[in-house]
């Protein structure tokens, strides 16, 4: 495939058109560091709730701000969510001040606790309210603002193209569309062809296709069917932080990531684990780390999965990591021909 022209958002030039999707409770600082070791065109934070960011409770504010931390050389976008223009604008100003180079607005999360509060994908049922949030955020900051959405609320409300046209006119710099409705959650298959309605909008900003992109072949299909200029990888990177760089190499000949095996894989998993312990502290870190260890074990056919997930101390967990991953055969699912 021919490498698309780089996407430029304000004064930020994005890298290869394979981006890390925002995933609540997953794309935290330690996971973004793990992905950054191999490379990505853009890293997106987990969702930052505007109502929690502007709370007067210091403990809540500190934990929410931790989600918006940015660092390193790779471009980082901080995703914010909410239903009121004022808190959304204030949150945008806060994360801009914290160093976010791009701010993304969440209008695609299907979780009931989000949509029940009239945020996330629920905003696709009220485009006037959605536009008021976009206007508030774009007007509050100097950094580029992007928007992530679904195809619509359900099959009777497929309005991604309408929302995208309004967002275009409001100054949104990039659109990301997940090829499912909110009603589908993550069931069935993403419909990349349905994203084409957004791609065909005149004068639209750059478009990113999302949903079920897990390797080079699905990325190729998503780009061809959607008409987008980039893809966004979410669940496909779980347990395989090298996946984005691997896709960029296989599709466009970007530098090949050194995919860890044996002791190198054990080193990577241990480093990620220890980073989580440092970031969250041992008590919370033990809980947060278990899902990542499970994904690493599943993606790399590593034994001792159950023991790692039940270990009660960091020392015991690290010993199991060394034992399990040093003998694992490696990223079996990722061996896609270039």
Characterise the protein shown here.
The chain is α/β, with parallel strands linked by helices and 338 residues long. It folds into two domains: 8-252, Alpha-Beta Barrel (TIM Barrel); 262-334. The chain has helices at 29-36, 50-53, 58-67, 85-97, 112-115, 127-140, 160-170, 196-199, 216-226, 243-252, 262-280, 282-299, 305-310, 314-325, and strands at residues 8-9, 12-13, 18-20, 42-44, 48-49, 76-81, 102-107, 145-150, 174-178, 206-210, 230-233. The strands form two sheets. An eight-stranded parallel beta barrel has the order 3-4-6-7-8-9-10-11, surrounded by six helices. Helix 1 (29-36) links the parallel strand 3 and strand 4. Helix 4 (85-97) runs parallel beside helix 6. The chain is globular and about 55 Å long. Residues 333-338 have low confidence and may be disordered.
